[in-house]
């Protein structure tokens, strides 16, 4: 493998360490939970100006009242090759102000602050890959960006997320989702879909002593259904059905007239998702105790990031580049937690996820990222761009 540009890329990144760190600090300090539209506006504007200064033609796409604008853009629109997409999100999961003003800090090589790992570091990497490639005269292909504002809420108040991400990805050679990097350097090559399934049984409430026979026990009806729903789990296919929350009844001496169940389902394959949801609906349509009735509803919180053909080839290339440039040998992993990478593979675009800074404990107070990984991954990804024409598909 030709590593001609290795030193130029490394020199560029090393010369910009302070600047990269300063931007990381700035956007972490701005915080911005998915619902905090005003805080997110400031993050979006700051990122837009940073990407525009790097020559990216940016647009803020309005998403309606439920979500802040998505930041999209293209660098080198006139270049000949198929574009490559950097994807990610600029919202965080914890409410702003929880850690006081200016929460970004560094302790013993670890950066801390809300979103430092998940995934503001990854956005800084994307920006500096573009800048490092520009600095060595890269002219092979356009580079696109798509950073959403509401990934942490699974786009709960915005119906257009999937459509927008898929349209930005459409026609791209490949994509990198700049999510939370694994501490051990594994790249993520697949993720489960997540479905929230809700079941509600209505029975007939009655006094358990005086009027037992008139009652129709909603909890008992639900129990039949719980066992059948749980049996839809198929670990070999990567499909799980977890009846996680059940609520019913009021007092022990009344036949319960109502029972509610919240189920979390995960699937590695979209086809399994469709099949299992249909089976769950059939279970809900069946009545065990006459006089009860059952309603069900579901929401696909996130589709599956499937390991489509091309994902493993991209992983193998990323690994080969890492080894050839002396950056180590990354492993691979399939995760149960969801991300927007699912929309990238649904658009048919080979994708690697978790290419952001490495760290641990996202979504908790203990979230941290390894500072050095900001520079290491910028170097690695910049190098990878120089070899993407080796991809066969
Ligand atoms: Zn994330």
Please explain how this structure is put together:
- The chain is α/β, with parallel strands linked by helices and 393 residues long.
- It has 2 domains: 6-191 and 305-390, Aminopeptidase (3-Layer(aba) Sandwich), CATH 3.40.630; 193-302, Alpha-Beta Plaits (2-Layer Sandwich).
- Helices cover 34% and strands 24% of the residues.
- It is built from 10 helices and 19 strands.
- It has a 6-stranded mixed beta sheet with strand order 1-2-6-3-7-17, sandwiched between helices.
- α1 runs antiparallel to α10 and α4 (116-135) crosses α10 (371-385).
- The two termini are 19 Å apart.
- The mean pLDDT is 96.
- Residues 89, 118-119, 151, 179-180 line the site of zinc ion.
């Amino acid at each position: 493998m030709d590593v001609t540009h290795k030193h130029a890329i490394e020199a560029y990144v090393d010369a910009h360490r302070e600047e990269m760190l300063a931007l990381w600090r700035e956007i972490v300090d701005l915080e911005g939970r998915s619902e905090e539209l005003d805080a997110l506006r400031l993050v979006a504007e700051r990122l837009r100006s940073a990407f525009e200064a790097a020559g990216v033609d940016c647009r803020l796409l309005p998403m309606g009242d439920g979500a802040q604008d998505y930041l999209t853009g293209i660098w080198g629109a006139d270049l000949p090759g198929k574009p490559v997409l950097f994807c990610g999100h600029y919202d965080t999961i914890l409410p702003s102000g929880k850690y006081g003003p200016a929460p970004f800090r560094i302790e013993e090589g670890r950066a801390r602050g809300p979103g430092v790992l998940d995934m503001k570091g990854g956005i800084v990497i994307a920006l500096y890959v573009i800048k490092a490639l520009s600095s060595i005269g890269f002219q092979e292909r356009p580079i696109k960006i798509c950073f959403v504002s509401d990934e942490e809420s699974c786009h709960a108040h915005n119906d257009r997320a999937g459509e927008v991400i898929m349209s930005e990805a459409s026609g791209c050679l490949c994509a990198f989702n700049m999510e939370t990097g694994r501490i051990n350097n594994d790249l993520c090559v697949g993720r489960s879909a997540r479905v929230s399934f809700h079941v509600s049984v209505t029975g007939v409430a009655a006094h358990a002593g005086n009027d037992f026979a008139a009652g129709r026990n909603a909890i008992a009806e639900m129990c039949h259904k719980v066992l059948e729903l749980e049996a839809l789990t198929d670990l070999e296919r990567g499909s799980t059905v977890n009846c996680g929350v059940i609520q019913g009844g009021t007092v022990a001496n009344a036949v319960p007239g109502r029972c509610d169940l919240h189920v979390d389902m995960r699937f590695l394959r979209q086809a399994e998702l469709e099949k299992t949801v249909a089976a769950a609906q059939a279970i809900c349509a069946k009545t065990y105790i006459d006089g009860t009735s059952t309603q069900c509803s579901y929401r696909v919180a996130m589709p599956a990031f499937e390991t489509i053909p091309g994902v493993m080839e991209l992983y193998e290339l990323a690994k080969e580049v890492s080894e050839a440039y002396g950056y180590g040998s990354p492993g691979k992993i399939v995760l149960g937690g969801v991300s927007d990478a699912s929309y990238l593979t649904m658009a048919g675009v080979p994708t690697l996820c978790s290419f952001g800074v490495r760290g641990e404990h996202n979504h908790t107070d203990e979230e941290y990222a390894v500072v050095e990984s900001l520079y290491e991954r910028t170097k690695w990804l910049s190098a990878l761009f120089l070899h993407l024409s080796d991809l066969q598909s």
